[in-house]
Specification:
It is found in: Cell inner membrane; Cell membrane. Belongs to the binding-protein-dependent transport system permease family. HisMQ subfamily. Keywords: Amino-acid transport, Cell membrane, Membrane, Transmembrane, Transmembrane helix, Transport. Pfam families: BPD_transp_1. The protein is mainly alpha-helical and 222 residues long. It has a domain of 153 residues: Orthogonal Bundle (MetI-like fold), CATH 1.10.3720. Helix content is 78%, strand content 0%. It has 9 helices and no strands. The longest helix is centred in the N-terminal third of the chain and has 32 residues. The radius of gyration is 21 Å and the shape is flat. The termini are far apart.
Length: 222
């Protein structure tokens, strides 16, 4: 078997451009997923709020129980049936964010519930409302505890973002497939694409590890 990487590296700039789009899609999706996850996670904290709790639980059931690829196709091909046409990039970000938001919500809920309830009770005894104690006491501690699992979700998003190439978004995978259509060097191209994904996830892991170690050194993460 003869491997020839020259045709692939001749178009390496296109792969780098695609990698940048992958990072942009992933970063935008993560920010939106965090906002969604926060809302859903807080909504599932109190089962006594029957309507909100069950709506949030239904969200988890739908988005965790169906494949991401199917969800992306629904956003991209389904919305036009209702007169809503979004750019491919927006559909990719929205699809990834809604899917990831379901998992982020469980991270949020777990982090909030891990904060000692005595701190909330102490805040209430000082005259704080439940909302104020959540914003001033609970959430700051919970956010710090979310960082490690959110890092894992970020890495998963980077890998899952390869699916947005099917929406004609010019991400890393899409650029790799374009090179294959011209060079017919599929194995070599996929190996290089996999290496770039590996670099992206490894750099992300190193950054997150450094952040976590700094927080541990400061006593912010137990």
């Amino acid at each position: 078997m003869n491997l020839d990487f020259y045709p692939v590296f001749a178009d390496f700039n296109e792969l780098l451009s695609g990698a940048l789009v992958t990072v942009e899609v992933t970063a935008c999706a993560l920010l939106l997923a965090c906002a969604i996850g926060l809302l859903i996670g807080v909504g599932r904290l109190n089962p006594k709020r029957y309507v909100i709790y069950n709506l949030c639980s239904l969200y988890l059931l739908l988005f965790r129980g169906t494949p991401l690829l199917v969800q992306l196709f629904i956003w991209f091909f389904g919305l036009p049936h209702f007169g809503i046409t979004l750019p491919a990039f927006a559909c990719g970000v929205l699809g990834l964010a809604m899917y990831s938001g379901a998992y982020v919500s469980e991270i949020v809920r777990g982090a909030i519930q891990s904060v000692d309830r005595g701190q909330t009770e102490a805040a209430r005894s000082l005259g704080m409302s439940s909302g104020m104690s959540m914003r001033a006491i609970v959430l700051p501690q919970a956010v710090v505890r979310m960082i490690p699992p959110l890092g894992n979700e970020f890495i998963a998003l980077i890998k899952n973002s390869a699916l947005v190439s099917l929406l004609t978004i010019h991400d890393l995978m899409h650029e790799g497939q374009k090179i294959i259509s011209v060079t017919y060097r599929s194995l070599e191209t996929y190996l290089v694409v996999a290496l770039i994904y590996l670099v992206l996830t490894t750099v992300t892991m190193l950054i997150l590890r450094a952040v976590e170690q700094r927080l541990r050194a400061g006593g912010m993460v137990q």
